[in-house]
Amino acid sequence: MNRQLFQYHPSIGYKFISNLKTRIQHETGGYLVRTNNWGFRSEIDFNKTKDPAKKRVCIFGDSFTAGDGVSNKFRFSDVIEQSIPGIEVYNFGLPGSGTDQQFLLFQEFGKDVECDLVILVVLVENIRRIKSHYRYYFNEAGEKVIYQKPYFDIKDGKLELFNNPVESQPLKLEDLPESEKEKVDTGGRFGMARSIVNALGLKELTQKITKYQPVPEYNAANTPEWLVMQGIIKEWSSMVNTKFLVVPLPLYQFIEETSDPKSYQARFHELHGELGIDVFDPLDDLLKYTMEERRNFRHKTDVHPTPEGHKAIAKSLVPEIQGLIK
Amino acid sequence: MSQDRYILGISAYYHDSAAAIIKNGEIIAAAQEERFSRVKHDPRFPVNAINYCLEEAFIEPSDIDAVVFYDHPVLTYDRIIKNCASVGASSASTFNSATKSILGIKLWVDRHVMKTIGTLGKLGKIVFAGHHLSHAASSFYPSPFTEAAIVSVDGVGEWSTTTIGHGKDNSIELLKEINYPNSLGLLYSAFTYYCGFKVNSGEYKLMGLAPYGKPIYADKIYQHLIDVKEDGSYRLDMSYFGYMDTGKTTNQKFHDLFGAPPRLPESVITKKEMDLAASIQHVTEEIFIKIARHAQKLTGSKNLCLSGGVALNCVANGKLLREKIFDNIWIQPAAGDAGGALGACYVGEHLYFKGARIPANGKPDLQMGTYLGPRYNDSEIEAFLDRNKYVYHKYDDAQKNQFLASEINKGKIVGFFAGRMEFGPRSLGARSIIGDARNSEMQSKMNLKIKYRESFRPFAPAVLREDVNKYFDLDGDSPYMLIVAPVSDAIRKPVTIDENWDGEDMIPVINQVRSELPAITHVDYSARIQTVHQDTNPQFHNLLKAFRDLTGCSVMVNTSFNVRGEPIVCTPKDAYLCFMRTDIDILALENYILVKEEQPKFEEKENWQLKYELD
After folding, report:
1. Which residues contact A102 (CB under 8 A, 6 or more apart)?
2. ipTM confidence
3. pLDDT over 90 at A25, yes or no
4. pLDDT digits (tens, 9 = 90+) for B420-459
5. Are B363 and B144 in contact (CB under 8 A)?
6. CATH number of B6-70+72-128+337-366: 3.30.420.40, 3.30.565.10, 1.10.275.10, 3.40.190.10?
7. B376 vs A3: CB contact, 8 Å cut-off?
8. Closest approach of chain A CAs to the CA of B574, in angstroms?
9. B431 close to B575: Cβ distance less than 8 angstroms
10. Which side of chain B, N or C, has fewer Cβ within a 10 Å radius?
11. How far is A70 from chain B (nearest CA, A)?
């Protein structure tokens, strides 16, 4: 990597460096990344004040929203902007972040931005990130290092923030207290088994046979992780003074039907029913495509959406957004 | 759909791979792969340089109209087969290795391009430009001339080693060529190897060594090694050279001619090497001038464009300039194979697509000072420094220039990192190490404690363009450090030659103060000059002005920002590492100033001195 992409941020942990113009090498050859004055992937600078002649939509999420693996213009946020006349879409996506960090990012950068709709895109895997206190990263030397991340817990029914401000320097796993070592997000379940299966090229087959459930944290309405997720979304919703939409974005296992989505769908359905928060689930729309088309929604090895994947997500979201902002 | 025409040019597989991109005939970016891979003269397919070109142009690969390769691998293979057939069984190893290389890699350029960017461009195929046509294009099209003679001289490309051409508007006609195995470049390289330096990078050292010696072997070279005609055409006596059959540039007969085996690398340099260097330099200059005269005769032009590795011989360039065969000379700053990437772009634009040329419109040229590489903005630099907890001071432009000028005046050495990185082998004030040219200890300090290189090697001056004739006998531009000119009489100082000097120990000679600018005055009172221009590098120009305001002197030492064997730094991280590994006192990353004493303790896991192969 020729350029550093992220900089330390005391509240969120990190954010994109502002005013970057770079191309990231990737299995597709590479993709273009431009960040704006506030340090978000965008072709335009952000302003708090809105052009009265336009509708503005602000989207928050992780790398699937930020657009890892594709150039800015191919992301679903940008495709939505191209599809609906008279709107501008601000993409606040931050790769590697959990819903907790996205909520902090909203408070830091998005709260005072005039807009007509706030969309929180929850890659359903993000629930795993909100339970972690640390994440692994690979530094420039290719070494695995651990960085602290902020996280929330529920205390007396209220959200409480920890690791804030975040330690700026990397930590060593061996220096962490035993109780904290298990709070390091290693990127998924069954780390060692996953490595072996992946190395053997049996990932998809194994997941299908074992009916792999990538996010068991949704299995019940009272798992600690879901309670935190629910708490964050509830508080976020209360801070938004315009329309607020939550979009659970399915992992490829759900799109390609190797895993059962019922658990997470149930949780987000409850969110709508119990808290009155608008939820739009795009999975049904995505399942209308042929299996071959759906496989092309992600890259060959990188699970992030391809331009075709982004286009399909945008196509699903456009009518919902049009309905909410009209 | 975009109406702009983008052409990606690539040079690779031989020496110093590079990529370049132009848009409607205008240069957008160009860079050598070595700067990203950190492997000096990296010959591999320039994946990182291509990525950078697309980054700078900020386009998708599907927007590229054509991908042009600077060479024609099939013709190169043809030459190798015929070479081996003519030499016979002794060339078997050359044939085998070249065949593996060519068939294994070079014929699969399209596959490499597909793998790297996923497309062959809108054209759907690679355009193979031809080696010397790429060189010619790299010097003519960015030049300010609408018409010019074009001379390209290098080791070998496909069959050609020397070509004369004529450029007019958007066309180039190659008029004459000298073919392999006769090669002025390979002759020079043979002496480079024989004198104990590395071929393809040590030629510069040989040129720097030449003024210490006398050309006493010139006649021997003419008598035995090369037959030169008045029109500059020449033939080598191949019985003295090994490159056709053994892969080595010289053979036993060559060694016998000069009475000894080649000097071992890193061993003591003796008077013999100095005289050999002076001799081959003298011969090269004479042939170069004859070729240029013939080119003028063939074309009738007043303008000359130069390229090819031999065009980096700035001593010969300076002599050529003073011969006044041409009114104007323009030299491609990336004259070697890297520049072929840029030439390939132009071949695509003007010869394949027949695009009209962009007029220079009063600009000195279209090369933009050759600042064609990556830039790092303040946010990126600050993020890098903060993440690593490096100590810095952020100044505005005026504060920075005053501080640096003052520190340089005190004898401090500065790593200067500003704006877009240079394309080509020279540092020109974007990635430079700079110091006070008036300081008599600067040359030895920079050579031994910063660059870790041979003490005889001279340093180059960077001088405000408007003040150049105060210090040097040069009445013109030399923005690319490709012209050597004498230091003016007004600032020279007499030297005393010890009558007992045995000609072997160079140190007393090196340490003599020859002018008011001892750090940049070579033993023969010459200097390899960079004129610094406000329009192409305002940051460096402003620093020189601040130094002039403080000291009355508008000259600084300017050497490449690297250590021996290391590619010139590209990123803030590369610059910081070089700063901490050497005796550089201050690092200026744009307007972020770092002082050595204030930095946290520097530790490295690996021994960087083992990392870089000596050049």
Report:
1. A60, A61, A62, A92, A94, A120, A126
2. 0.91
3. yes
4. 999 999 999 999 999 999 999 998 889 888 877 777 788 9
5. yes
6. 3.30.420.40
7. yes
8. 10
9. yes
10. N
11. 10
